[in-house]
């Protein structure tokens, strides 16, 4: 029982930390998407599809700047 409460408490703490990060506005996400597309054009996407690469790249940029990650790219 103590273990369960500990796990629930840790999960709650982790979700609270994630919720405190700001959400990036659409313009910033668009800028990161364009930047990541340039990287993909120059260096390739490895084994990822272009959409997968862009999502990973944009989320890395967002994390670096302290924003919440996104789950899908805007069109």
Topology, element by element:
Elements: H1 2-20, H2 26-43, H3 50-64
Helix pairs in contact: 2-3
Summarize the structure.
The chain is an all-alpha fold. It has three helices and no strands.
How would you sum up this structure, described in words?
- This protein is mainly alpha-helical.
- It has one domain (23-75).
- Helix content is 69%, strand content 0%.
- The protein has three helices and no strands.
- Helix 2 (26-43) crosses helix 3 (50-64).
- The longest helix has 19 residues, at 2-20.
- The chain is globular and about 35 Å long.
Q: What's the total helix number? A: 3
Estimate nothing, just give the exact number of structural domains.
1
Rg, nearest Å: 16 Å
Helix fraction by DSSP (H/I, runs of at least 4): 55-70%
User: What structural class should be given to the helix and strand makeup?
Assistant: mainly alpha
| H/E series | HHH
Low-pLDDT regions: none
The biggest sheet, with number of strands, parallel, antiparallel or mixed sense and barrel status, is: none
How many beta-strand runs? Answer: 0
Strand content: under 5%
Which descriptors would you attach to this protein?
single chain; 75 residues; mainly alpha
